[in-house]
Specification:
Elements: H1 2-21, H2 24-35, H3 41-66, H4 71-91, H5 101-117, H6 131-151, H7 156-168, H8 172-196, H9 202-252
Helix pairs in contact: 1-2, 1-3, 1-9, 2-3, 3-8, 3-9, 4-6, 4-8, 5-9, 6-7, 6-8, 7-8, 8-9
């Protein structure tokens, strides 16, 4: 019982953070690894995806009701992300995802430095590209980040937000809304793979998913009510934590 309560508590916090800026996996996945040390990694990843998609679906619903989403840009990225996330999940059985850590660490440090240095970055929405350019970039972003989410995962939401702000000129709030739609697609594709291969622990996943949904509902409300400045600050905090976590993993290993 204590194990389930602990996992549910972290699932709630993960859902709240993930709904605003992504990075819920930074909280949820390590706890599953610690609490279930004898469980195969595929089952832990599958259970985490099952929990995450529950909260993400609520976040998407809330954002769609209360925040404008640029569907013309978001849908191509979502379709590409779905396809490549499934491929990424398949590759986890062939390659060691930990090989990605140094590369991702370098990218996260670059993202953090750029966002810290640009004080107005993501606070205003500025359109930069033609419709055709937006579609092409959208497919490219969905393909690359979708594959990464299926294969490795941590920081997917944060990378999506950074991409939508820096490339499309979105505000942080609008980027967060679009990121949730794409994140739903990547979670769904990876979950399909893990579910088909019997790598979801439903006895833990269902109560955790309920708590993740509650956290996502509260997180979405916070993001919409407090705006892009709040999302930007939380984004920087989560990226900094991701840098610390990946740096620790690399040194520890």
């Amino acid at each position: 019982m204590l194990e389930i309560l602990t996992l549910c508590g972290f699932a709630f916090v993960a859902g709240l953070i993930d709904a605003v800026v992504g990075g819920g996996g930074l909280i949820q996945l390590p706890v599953l690894l610690i609490m279930l040390p004898q469980t195969v990694i595929a089952s832990i990843l599958g259970t985490s995806k099952f929990v995450s998609i529950a909260g993400t679906s609520i976040a998407v619903h809330q954002y769609a009701k209360q925040q404008k989403i640029e569907w013309g840009t978001t849908i191509p990225a979502m379709v590409a992300a779905f396809i490549f996330s499934f491929l990424g999940a398949r590759v986890t059985s062939l390659l060691n995802p930990s090989l990605m850590r140094p590369v991702i660490l370098g990218l996260l440090i670059t993202v953090a430095i750029y966002t810290f240095s640009k004080k107005d970055f993501g606070l205003l929405q500025i359109s930069k590209l033609s419709q055709l350019q937006q579609s092409l970039y959208s497919i490219a972003i969905g393909s690359v980040i979708g594959f990464y989410d299926g294969f490795f995962g941590p920081g997917t939401g944060s990378f999506l937000i950074f991409a939508f702000v820096s490339i499309f000129g979105y505000s942080f709030l609008m980027a967060s809304a679009s990121a949730k739609v794409i994140n739903f697609a990547t979670n769904l594709a990876a979950l399909i793979y893990f579910a088909v291969t019997n790598n979801v622990i439903y006895a833990l996943g269902i109560p955790m998913a309920i708590c993740n949904i509650l956290g996502a509902f509260i997180g979405t409300k916070l993001a919409i009510s407090k705006g892009s400045e709040f999302v930007r600050k939380l984004f920087l905090m989560i990226v900094s934590l991701l840098i610390f976590k990946l740096g620790y993993d690399i040194i520890h290993n």
